[in-house]
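Today's session is about reading a structure prediction critically. Students often jump straight to the picture, but the first step is always the sequence itself: look for stretches that repeat, for charged clusters, for runs of hydrophobic residues. Only then move on to the predicted structure, which in these notes is written as discrete structure tokens rather than atom positions. Here is the chain we will use throughout the hour.
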Amino acid sequence: MADLETLLSKRSFIELGARERVRTLLDDGTFRELLDPFARVMSPWLIQQNIVPQADDGVVVAKGTLQNRPVVAIAIEGVFQGGSLGEVGGAKIAGALELAVEDNQKGIPTAAILLLETGGVRLQEANLGLAAIAEIQAAIVALRQYQPVVAVIAGSVGCFGGMSIAAALCSYLIMTQEGRLGLNGPQVIEQEAGLQEYDSKDRPFIWSISGGEQRVASGLADAFVDDDREQIRQQILTYLSQGLPALHRSSNYAFYLDKLQQVATEQQSAPLDVQHAYQGEPA
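Below is the predicted structure for this chain, in token form.
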């Protein structure tokens, strides 16, 4: 009975759209969206390819406070073009992070929250999207010198491609059971390496390798949380209160390079093999 009451008391974070996810995290009455849909700043390239654009290009950027701490919260809408990033959406994210850097230089301790639901670069915008993601990565590295950059990967779209690198650059990374994180998506791996290497339709296997529980157990993400708005909010607050980590994960590249060099590639790795590779012992 207690478990049922706990389940019923939870409010799903994943079921919300990007804008509602940002609103539910920020303090009441502090949500202020930058370049909202009424600004009509959208991709000029999708129309030329007979693809219906979205007025915010699938990216929501808002300033506000989280328990009175100044933050910029950025969410990618996973249902629009698979959360892919093009020139406009990428520029919105990079620009917001760069403004947060300027805030800190002016004495305003603005942290950043990234809600990532993305397959990476938008193929229809190719190099423009890649350049935007590179700017996002540079802005994360610049901002994390001052304040934490906290990323959340909650929904089943996951976080792949160049934005998975951006996620790895963040100060802290929060994931749910439904979230996934990987450089290449399952379909890309299957296409390039074959079905025997990676069956993209084998959902239990996919999540056992790149899902939130596995990524946290392997030390590639920091917190494994339920799909619950308040739990996610509290975990973000915990990391904002902790401040900067002693060592950012991406700065510890020598550790990870050494681990990767020890991986046996002759056979497909099992979930416990992945954990052992990074942590030195099975979970």
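Discussion point for the tutorial: The chain is about 40% helix and 15% strand.
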